[in-house]
Write a structure and sequence with these properties.
This protein is an alpha/beta fold. It contains eight helices and seven strands, in the order βββαβαβααααβαβα. Helix content is 32%, strand content 15%. Strands 1-3-2-4-5-6-7 form a seven-stranded mixed β-sheet.
């Protein structure tokens, strides 16, 4: 299997897959505990962006299209196995949205559900490029932002080498995301669920994402900030309506 995909708890007999895409500067570690929060018929598969963890020797994606091309290969691998749901957090939500657009346009099999977590609507791409954090920020500014939202552990903050690596990965992902452009009028037919923290600094995600859904839409606000509360984050798949049919009513 490609080193871009990690299966924390392999379930070869599963009937569905939850494929997750990380936030800017992130890897797979924050998502691995989710395997224990999934129904027994669902396998957790994590996509690892280039330049980190098991793909440390792979060059960072040069731009947005390179990142999407790499991610698309991973999605096709997962889609060939069984039906899947696609979840992206923060930058990963935009990656997941763009991937779904490309898949619906003929690049492969779209997910059964798209879950956008902790992200402003892609319609705001121009505004987001002018807001902190940006790839032009200093190392200290990037560290401050990551620390404020809870993206860095105390262990990383305590080690200069780990801090430098975290900034390098974060800046590389910011540079790639600078190339994203939302094309006016683009929507997805795939059912879309939006998750966001009550205390996150986002501009009304429910309203912003709603026009991008040509099909079913649902928005759920959860306790906490950009990464919710530790308790909510640890079991975030429990908030994914498509994984739990009894809770799948539309809240859009």
């Amino acid at each position: 299997m490609s080193r871009s995909l990690l299966r924390p708890l392999p379930r070869p007999g599963a009937t569905r897959t939850l494929l997750c895409l990380s936030f800017c500067g992130g890897g797979t570690a924050s998502f691995r505990p989710w395997a224990e929060a999934l129904p027994p018929d669902v396998e957790l598969v994590l996509y690892c962006y280039p330049g980190r963890e098991g793909r440390y020797t792979v060059p960072f994606a040069a731009d947005w299209n390179a990142l999407l091309t790499d991610a698309l290969d991973a999605v096709r691998t997962v889609a060939a196995e069984r039906p899947y749901l696609l979840l992206g957090h923060s930058m990963g939500a935009w990656v997941a949205f763009d991937l779904t657009c490309r898949l619906e346009a003929g690049a492969g099999t779209p997910p059964r559900t798209l879950i956008a977590s902790g992200a402003d609507s892609p319609v705001r791409w121009a505004e987001k490029r002018r807001e902190t954090p940006t790839s032009a920020d200093t190392d200290e500014e990037l560290l401050t932002w990551m620390s404020t939202v809870g993206q860095l552990s105390d262990a990383v903050l305590a080690e200069p080498e780990l801090r430098a690596m975290a900034v390098e990965v974060f800046r590389a992902d910011l540079h790639a995301s600078d190339g994203y452009r939302y094309r006016e009028g683009i929507t997805v037919r795939t059912p879309l669920q939006v998750l966001y923290g009550a205390d996150d600094d986002l501009e009304d995600p429910a309203t912003g994402w709603r026009p991008l859904a040509a099909g079913e839409f649902r928005a759920d606000v959860l306790p906490g900030g950009h990464f919710y509360t530790p308790e909510v984050w640890a079991r975030l798949p429990e908030a994914v309506a498509a994984l739990h049919p009894a809770a799948a009513g539309n809240r859009g």
